[in-house]
Amino acid sequence: MLRIIRAACLAVGLFMCTALAFTVTTVSSAEASSLTCVPSDLKQTLSQIQSQFGPVRVVSTFRKGARIAGSGKPSYHASCRAVDFYPPPGKHAQVVSWLKSNHRGGVGTYSCGAGHIHIDNGPAYRWHKCAGGKGRKHARSRSAKRAG
Ligand SMILES: [Zn+2]
To answer: What is the predicted pLDDT for the residue at 33?
Structure first.
């Protein structure tokens, strides 16, 4: 896909190149947040959340070749067994605690500017990461050390 865009850029110039890249990005992000390939157990978890807390906004499901940052292992997103979503406004903490006691697979949460929640249907594990901000992770780990 990128090779096609690059070739088109050379042929038609910068303006068209920008327009084309925009179109491609829009199309692929729509595909990447489609629930079509997501297993039914994850869809069920999402619909339970929606019926209890309100509508969620799915941001990412399938990411071809996705790897877990820092480990190099394939992510559940690479096989469409994971969903990243934003809970209804003001319901983040409630949705997370509901997931921790009701969801059988993995539950991941983010801080530092990224407020989405990750669920997958792998082994039951819980993780929390700092993502989306600059420098806050460092400050946080330093103050955590000081605290004990
Ligand atoms: Zn995720």
So the answer is: 87
